[in-house]
Amino acid sequence: MKNRVAAIDVLRSITMFLMLFVNDIPGLKGVPGWLFHATAQQDMLGFSDTIFPAFLFCVGMSVPFALENRFKKGENYLQVITHILIRTFSLVVMGLFTLNCSGHGVLSGSWFMLLMAIGFALTWIDAPALASHKNIYRILKWTGAILLAVLLVYFDVSGKPFETGWWGILGLIGWTYLVVSVVYLFTRKNLTANGVVCALFILLCILNNANVIPKEYFSRAVLLPFIPGGWTHHALGMSGLMTSLVMKHFASKENGKRTLIINLLLAGCFSCVAGLVCHHFWIISKIQATPTWLFYCLAIYFVLLAIIFYITDVKGKVSWFQWLKPAGVATLTCYILPYFWYAIKGILGLTLPEGVYYGWVGIFISLLYSYLIILIVKYLLELGVKIKV
Description:
Blueprint: H1 6-24, H2 51-72, H3 77-99, H4 109-123, E1 125-126, H5 134-157, H6 168-187, H7 191-210, H8 218-226, H9 232-251, H10 256-278, H11 291-314, H12 325-329, H13 331-348, H14 359-382, E2 386-387
Antiparallel strand pairs: 1-2
């Protein structure tokens, strides 16, 4: 699956930039309420509530390209499955650490966060320049793994064992990646098969929220509680997978770009109507992972993709988004890097004037901070270093 559609990478880059932003704005005062997450029972789609599902959507969009590339390199199904399982395990582990990131005993929350971030960076460091120094590479990775293991034991000894809870952002992404990737191993590039699975996942999401499946029934009693998100997260992932296949199909055809834009806009309209219908039965809730939330988010992504595709793949203005490229190339690095900053800020007690955390000044500072993270990642990429699972 070569000649990758530029809009797919641009959407992922934008999503990562906005993830940095929404993770930094909690604590700001005097800013619009719609910027934040809605509460569990609040019938509202906050701006922050649209970013995590965009991540899941982008994960689904990337799966066909990533797996097909592995097959083209000569890997067999067993090797690809092994890669999927290792990547899932890594994301779930990081998700659980970030979920349980708090201080206990003599270790404060900031120190735990810093050691956790160092453990992440060392364990999953990807530095081709060090590849020739295999012993050094192994030492770094084993040091990181041992550090995380020590933190895990310390956490347990201090009287509060790790909890799975809601698995953390990276954990939820890991579960969705696993489900969508395994599906793709069976469906590959078959649009019909992927469309059927996507529709099935959306149906499971609706059935789960409608409580029509008896709890004693196997799929309800075993599968749904085990897989977080009540299938809503995986419906987002499969929708992304299906979208990337459709985009690739039309973008490679003569005069297919116009048709693709029309189809994306129609999909956005359909999702919006589906959201309006579902709103009669369920509130808009990210925390509850309702079908209403699913459809409204999909409506946003389809329309946004159509706009981005027109700019990047029709008009050829990819350069407009070049400043965001590091966020798409080293997404995990962008996500992990802020933990270093927040930890160091907490340890040293660094604070900014109170006015910086207020109103549009606070919003600007958070946007600037997000851009600085991307600049740092760009510098790391130039050095040949990133965090990768």
